[in-house]
Amino acid sequence: MRIVLRGIGKTFTLQDGRRLPVLRDLSFAVDRQEFCCLVGPSGCGKSTILNIVAGLIAPDGGEVLGDGATLDARRARIGYVFQKPRLLNWRTVLDNVRFVLRAAGVAESEAAARARHYLHLVGLGHFVDEFPLALSGGMQQRVAIARALAIEPGLLLMDEPFSHLDELTARTLRAELLRIWQRARTPVIFVTHNALEAVYLADRVIVLSGRPTTLVKELTVALPRDREMEDPQLMSLHRVILNSLGVIDAGGAHDREAP
Amino acid sequence: MRSSSASSDAVAVGPMRRSSIVWHRWPFLIHCASVVTVLAVWQLVAAFFPPSLLPGPTTVLRRVATIVVSGQFAFHMAHTLARVGVGFVCAFVVSLALGILMGVSRTAEKFLELEILIGLTVPSLAWAVVALMWFGIREIAPVFTIFVIILPLLTVNMWQGTKALDQDVIEMARAFRARRAQVVREVIVPQLVPYLLAATRFGLSLAWKVAVIAEMLGISNGIGYMIHYAFGIFSMEDVLAWTISFTLVMIVLEYGLLNPLEARITRWRRTVTL
Questions:
Q1: Which residues of chain B make contact with A86, given a CB cutoff of 8 A?
Q2: Domains in chain A, ordered, with CATH?
Q3: pLDDT tens digits, B1-12
Q4: CB pairs under 8 A between A and B
Q5: What is the pTM of this model?
Q6: Of the residues A241, B12, B212, B269, which has the fewest C-beta atoms closer than 10 A?
Q7: How confident is the model at residue B18 (pLDDT cuts 50, 70, 90)?
């Protein structure tokens, strides 16, 4: 599916009645089979964009298109991985995946096998009968990824899914995400404030800034997928992004994003 | 409410696991020793008083056996149980509606807050007298008394449970297009269950006490009536026998039924972190 956001605007009304414009006339597209990262400082409305695409909140203006027609979030299968795992802690790992399969209308007879398959894919084949609280944070996030993949989505939304994990775990999960993603190449919109993570993962990086959010820069990462985080080419792209955000001048002296 | 976090579990469970098995047995022995001590002290103290004021434990326990074997106890217990059951179920249903409403709507919360607070404060006996004057010597009097006294207590629990719902998980379910019925059944109700259980325990333990008080006024059967009757003929032996056998049944229900049920339903909380 090719996703197009056209002229999206959103203003929130705060408790005290003030109006806070978050998005104004924002447009960009995500191609079929494209891994697209949205990078920007915290609080610049990145999650709002995902929630609008997912149909969780309605934009004040503009439209979201899927393959040229208005994207009906109720019909389109959209997988969502949140910042925190957001699991049903009272259900086993397997039942957590089955929960979304039931919501997606997958037959019960097929659901268990499919849930097992995706849990196996994220390396949790031996933990299907555990309760989430028995798992580490990284493993819980793996469950959340398996849950999003299991519905075999037409679009995958990821909202800083690795930002709560330690860097070693995050690295492993990033590499595994790419390994799995390359099998189906579902279009991904991946939100992060970590510019290096963005250039490591993405086909294309969209840099956002300010409130209301504006598109600062777009850059294509035309490197083959066996990327290394320490690759000098990635590092220089990383620096380009930080530059465009005004974080550093040249030398990376204030670079707080790099691991 | 238990509020164990995953991380503290991880610290506690690992190194202490083996010794906890030993401690698992000790409390039972300590409980036994405690009961024996109480009986011994009772026996000792009773020796200094006339039986009409404080009969010894053997006398009372023999009396317990008599009322149980004769079927008297079962008859009156059944009446008390029925009153508690009906009053409790009604209060549970109403409190569930009120509590959820208060948890969801700020207006409802403000509107009902004061009434709940007052309801928690009114003495049981006052309600029992009011119910008797309203309904006369009829079954509905004690049932109403139980209902109206435990209602605010249950409502507070349901209210807190609703407010504590994890909105993030509900949003997750919406993002994956779960239908409303699925969200209620699989996301909301399971989160309320610990609160419902806590409410059940608090509510029932209060309901028994209220039932006995309500039965002392005008009703002609039930445990409360029998205690009142024993008081009328000034038989301390009977007062103690009825009280003790009633209490034993409560303990069995609490520890034999409600505790294991709660442990089973909330077993997902007690886990070892990998």
A1: 168-169, 171-172
A2: 1-76+154-259 (3.40.50.300), 86-153 (no CATH)
A3: 344 443 433 334
A4: 72
A5: 0.77
A6: B12
A7: low
